[in-house]
Amino acid sequence: MTSFKRWIVPTAILTIIIVVVAIFMIQTRNEVTNATGPAPTLPTLPVPTEETSTPTPTPTPTPECEGPDTLFNLEGEAKASLLPDCGNAPVTVAEQQISGLTLGCGGKYPSILFKTNTGDTNVSVCGKDASGVEFRVVVKERGAELKDLKGDYIWQRDAFVAKDGGVTYEIRGYDGSVHITRNGKTTVQETDDWMSLENEPDDG
After folding, report:
1. Which of 14, 36, 86, 108 is 20 to 30 Å apart from 30, CA to CA?
2. Beta strand residue intervals within 118-184, DSSP E
3. What residues have CB less than 8 Å from 168, skipping those under 6 apart?
4. Strand order, beta sheet including 135-141
């Protein structure tokens, strides 16, 4: 009996140790299982669909001046003005008040109704609007100053007429020729480079 009692205490202690170790191992296994368990599933985001947009067509820019490749108003459309020849920019109202109109017109006479170039003389007929009710005649003779003159229209000859002192300039609307009367003598300058806002062909 004494021998049995002697083993009770060690056996109890050993049992307690075993139980503690077992509990520790079970807890450790649960923690490892939780740590290495399946990863949480992330929500699947929809892939944005690529939209193909039709590009907006770029309007063709309107040319600012008349060059060899920018013939104007051949379609017969109702235009407000011919384009100025390249190199002859329109003037502002302030510039017109200081030094008059140029071959590009502008200012209070922004509409180019007619223009012609004989080689010796350049002319632009500048209207307040496309109606041609009121206009100026701008004349540039070779080697002379630019002249901005009051203009009249003679329908019987289809002619724009302007006077500068004793010199009369008459520009024929049907063929672009320039008739200059100076000291009682008239010289005629023919041209094949003219254009009318009314879409008359510049074929001389």
Report:
1. 14
2. 121-127, 135-141, 147-154, 159-164, 167-172, 178-182
3. 161, 162, 180, 181
4. 185-189, 178-182, 167-172, 159-164, 147-154, 135-141, 121-127, 111-117, 194-196
In whole angstroms, give the CA distance from residue 177 to residue 186: 12
Token code pair at residue 192: 């094949």
Q: What are the pLDDT digits (tens) for 73-92?
A: 555 566 788 989 888 999 99
How far is residue 37 from each of residues 23, 30, 92, 140, measured CA to CA in Å? Answer: 21, 10, 83, 96
Spatial contact of 162 and 149, defined as CB atoms under 8 Å apart: yes
- B/e letters for 34-71, b = 16+ CB within 10 Å, e = fewer, are eeeeeeeeeeeeeeeeeeeeeeeeeeeeeeeebeeeee
Q: Which of 163, 165, 168 is nearest to 188 (CA)?
A: 168
Taking the whole predicted model, whether its pTM rises above 0.70 is answered as no
